[in-house]
Amino acid sequence: MADGRFSGTSSYVATDDLMMAVNAAVTLERPILIKGEPGTGKTQLAIEVATSLGRPLYEWHIKSTTKAQQGLYEYDAVARLRDSQLGDDRVHDIANYIVRGKLWEAFESDVQPVLLIDEVDKADIEFPNDLLRELDRMEFYVYETKQLIQATHRPIIVITSNNEKELPDAFLRRCFFHYIKFPDKATMEKIVDVHYPKLKKTLLREALNAFYKVREVPGLKKKPSTSELLDWIKLLLAEDIPPEALRSEDSRKAIPPLYGALLKNEQDVHLFEQLVFLDRRSGHQ
Amino acid sequence: MLIPFFYLLRDGGMKTSITEMLTLLEAMKKGLAGHSVDDFYFLSRACLVKDESQLDRFDRIFAAYFKGVEDALADLMQDVPEEWLVKQAELYLTEEERAQIEAMGGFEELMRALQERLEEQDERHQGGSKWIGTAGTSPFGAYGYNPEGVRIGQRGSRNRSAVKVWDQRQYRNLDDSVELGTRNIKVALRRLRKFAREGAADQLDLEDTIDKTARNAGLLDIRMVPERHNAVKVLLCLDIGGSMDDHVRVCEEMFSAARSEFKHLEYFYFHNFVYESMWKDNRRRHAERIPTLDIAHKYGADYKLIFVGDATMSPYEIVYAGGSVEHWNEEPGAIWIKRLLHTYPKAIWLNPEPRKRWDYTPSIKITREIMDDRMYPLTIAGLDDGIKALH
Asked: Which residues in A lie closer than 8 A to residue B42 (C-beta atoms)?
């Protein structure tokens, strides 16, 4: 993109507020924190930003055991010990045993890269605090070789969080923030259209109606989200389900077909079936 | 121009910092907001709001400020609090005017009249642009008191096209208006950590490896150790139902923080006081009960016992057999809790009731005596003290 601004791609529908938040982060070269229900395209965003701006993408997926240090570098002591046994000449230079992390790789990129730090809330509660200086100044110090690594181009950092742990204030202050709210019907139609352009209008309408109805069921543990809807539509297409089958005015068919794709929790399925059962009973009276 | 807005946000209870404000200014300087109010709204939201539960609050303050009204606080408080009106009037009115109000039957009377008038006007001027005229006949207008500033009936101005996105208040149900304390609780609970190495040896023990290699005449002898884990074991007993309903939120926070912090956490529920059995699933509390003796036998003495409950009940429920409100208990609760305390010497009771009320409730006094005074308020400070006592 010529002006270096993000405005969604052919496969990703971005709302105005999301675009503004991303562009602010790109312009000011600060990290952007993305939150939202699971399945609303948080991780996808970083990939799309990289493609649309034509930048290389570095992905750092966080697990519960991930340490901040692993994103910077690791000192491979075992390899050095082994080399010392074998009398390898490399052993004299400690720099040979410094393994670069994702952050380092991103810092050394020739063009401004996009760095995805995925699911930052999965890590230990102190993890974000350990990255404060690195994200702020975009530099860190390698103690083994006494060298200061500075970013040649400040990367565009996209951080996603599922809200499993709260993030410290000091960390939040350094980021832009965007909460991807669940798309309304109009946006959802656009999203589905991007993924299944040849979908029949009637099927789409019925599918969306059924989908939002399921979402409105009170007390669901995990409401179905965009990615589940897309999977479900894929299944509907594969099974060649006619749009009429989705219409739930007829209470006997109130359970949408293939609803296993929408509800991922056996308690939810159970609750849903119970509600439909109750509905049916009251419908007969 | 944005400085009053910044202070308004802070007054409205948002934790916006100077850095964030400067970020916003920098972004505006780079021309990100363009010339549209919508853009500015999106930009300032991305800069200043860092938690989705704050979004609704931000929307309301934004709406209020950009309608050109200085004071958004009243709007935040939903219905207009009397004290606030009094305070405002004192700011606006001179001595002379105040005397005039007194002559008209006092301030309360006047405010009541104002409220009434406003309600009337709401009906007559539906969709109109002004509430109360500033003509000399109205007592309110005469004093230069702008009822718009009181902001009764803010919803009326739907015809402002600029203010739209934030007026929809899409994030309303995300604002829980309760300070999320899980993080604080977790930080407090961390003190209870006790690291131990157990499990699969998957980390290189550098020191031991060097040592063994040296002894091995320089031939590499790699030594591994298991990773350090938080090895502290916690038994959490939570009071549920009845008078505890007022404290559900803080208990939920405490529980969710504890659950993710400790690997060895066992939890049980009880109602009002501990008797011969507890349960794990509230929906099946009558069907699936676990005898308290089984708990004491199953979990070793190295577990730390934490009760969470308000200990607010009739003293009979503690000291008499058959005192329980739910069933006939053969032995009094006091005996059961003493048995548990005997098994688990490291025990505390966390009480969500404020400490100053403890002395007025006999059952709390009794419980405190049984607990050897190891009762702490369920606050961050109390938790800190409690954790110290557990060590």
From this structure: 16-17, 20-21
Residue given tokens 């993408």 in the structure block: A57
Are A257 and A211 a contacting pair, CB within 8 Å?
Answer: no
Residue B229 sits at the chain A interface (C-beta within 8 Å): no
Interface predicted TM-score of the whole assembly (ipTM), two decimals: 0.73
Residues on chain A touching B43 (C-beta within 8 angstroms): 20-21, 24
CA gap A58, A50 in Å, rounded: 9
Helix (H) or strand (E) holding A116: strand A114-118
Please give the pLDDT value at position B135: 34
How confident is the model over A150-173, as a mean pLDDT? 86
Tell if the CB–CB gap between B50 and A175 is shorter than 8 Å. Answer: yes
DSSP B303-368: SEEEEE----S-THHHHSTT--SSS--SS-HHHHHHHHHHH-SSEEEEE-S-GGGGGG-HHHHHHH
User: Higher-confidence residue: A63 or B154?
Assistant: A63
A271 φ/ψ angles, rounded to the nearest 5 degrees = -60, -45
**Is the per-residue pLDDT at A139 higher than 80?**
yes
Determine the pLDDT at residue A59.
Answer: 93
Give CA–CA dist B298/A219, Å, rounded. Answer: 35
- State the residue for tokens 């005996």: B335
Angle at A214 between CA A209 and CA A220, to 5 degrees: 160
Q: Which amino acid is at A146?
A: K
Contacts of residue B30 in chain A, CB cutoff 8 Å? Answer: 27-28
> Which phi and psi (to 5°) does residue B49 adopt?
-105, 130
Among the partner residues A28, A173, A176, nearest to B17 by beta-carbon distance: A173
- Residue B15 at interface with chain A, using a CB cutoff of 8 Å: yes
pLDDT digits (tens, 9 = 90+) for B345-365: 889 998 888 888 888 888 898
Q: Is-contact B368 B336, C-beta < 8 A?
A: no
